[in-house]
Amino acid sequence: MSKSINLGIQIVPKSKTLDSYALVDKAIEVIQKSGVKYEVTPFETVMEGPQDKLMAIALLAQEAVLAAGADEVLVYYRMQVRKEYDVTMEEKTAKFR
């Protein structure tokens, strides 16, 4: 079984005619339907799960934004990966809830 990592993805769509927020919503829809744990924040969406699965979801999210009409996208990733054990969002944020 693959270790869980955290992957933060920020997709910045470029379009001369379409609303950027509506395009970003297309990426978030892909992530919501994926079944992985995720959290939407004002600047990025963070996912938790196996790295290969998260990278595949990220690619689908990027493709969804282009399919929705974006002329191009800038995609920024941030990942936390541990050698020996899982990375969870809960360990970083539980004390604030």
The total number of structural domains is: 1
Structural class: alpha+beta
The overall average pLDDT, rounded, is: 96
Please report the distance between the alpha carbons of the first and last residues. 30 Å
Broad shape = elongated
Strand content: 25-35%
Helix content: 25-40%
SS elements, strand count: 4
Give Rg in angstroms: 14 Å
Biggest sheet: strands, sense, closure?
Answer: 4 strands, antiparallel
- Can you tell me the CATH topology? Alpha-Beta Plaits
Order of helices and strands: EHEEHEH
Mind telling me which CATH architecture this is?
A: 2-Layer Sandwich
Give a concise summary:
The chain has 97 residues and is an alpha+beta fold. The protein has a single domain (4-37, 47-85), classed as 2-Layer Sandwich (Alpha-Beta Plaits), CATH 3.30.70.930.
Provide an overview of this structure.
The chain is of the alpha+beta class. The chain has one domain: Alpha-Beta Plaits (2-Layer Sandwich), CATH 3.30.70. The protein has three helices and four strands, in the order βαββαβα. The protein has a four-stranded antiparallel sheet with strand order 2-3-1-4. α1 packs antiparallel against α2. The longest helix has 17 residues. The protein is elongated and about 45 Å long. This is Thiamine-binding protein. It holds the Pfam family Thiamine_BP. InterPro entries: MTH1187/YkoF-like, Thiamine_BP, UPF0045_domain. Belongs to the UPF0045 family.
